[in-house]
């Protein structure tokens, strides 16, 4: 899958439903459908200004052999994606995550702590 706005929004719709506007990524950070690719996209949630920009995250990084197949891609808040970086094991806010393959040999993100 080519990574572009059109395909990113298709992935969003397939993952969350085309009527979903605000959701949380795997780490719990908010994302707004209209915030694709915008690191400065903020909205007020419960009276607090919250960053909801998002982009596409490669669960298995391309630098480690991961590709653009849909089963390797997920929508994540831009800050979550930045903290995960190009690693298969990483810490975000005192939570440890690791990429593992499931029975179908597809990547999944597991929270270890």
Protein architecture, described:
With 113 residues, this protein is of the alpha+beta class. It has a domain at 5-81. Helix content is 17%, strand content 35%. The protein has 2 helices and 9 strands. A 3-stranded antiparallel beta sheet has the order 7-8-9, with helices on one face. A two-stranded antiparallel ribbon has the order 1-2. A two-stranded antiparallel ribbon has the order 3-4. The longest helix has 12 residues, at 5-16. The chain starts with a helix and ends with a strand.
Features:
113 residues, alpha+beta
Indicate the topology:
Layout (H helix, E strand, L loop, with lengths): L4 H12 L5 E3 L5 E3 L9 E4 L2 E4 L2 E5 L14 E5 H7 L4 E4 L2 E7 L5 E5 L2
Antiparallel strand pairs: 1-2, 3-4, 5-6, 7-8, 8-9
């Amino acid at each position: 899958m080519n990574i572009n706005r059109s395909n990113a929004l298709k992935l969003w719709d397939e993952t969350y439903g085309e009527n979903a506007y605000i959701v949380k990524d795997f780490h719990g950070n908010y994302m707004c459908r209209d915030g694709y690719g915008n690191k400065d996209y903020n909205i007020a949630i419960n009276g607090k200004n919250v960053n909801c920009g998002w982009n596409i995250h490669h669960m298995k990084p391309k630098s480690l052999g991961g590709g653009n197949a849909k089963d390797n891609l997920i929508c994540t808040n831009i800050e979550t994606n930045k903290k995960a970086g190009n690693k298969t094991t990483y810490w975000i806010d005192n939570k440890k995550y690791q990429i593992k393959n499931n029975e179908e040999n597809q990547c999944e993100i597991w929270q270890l702590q």
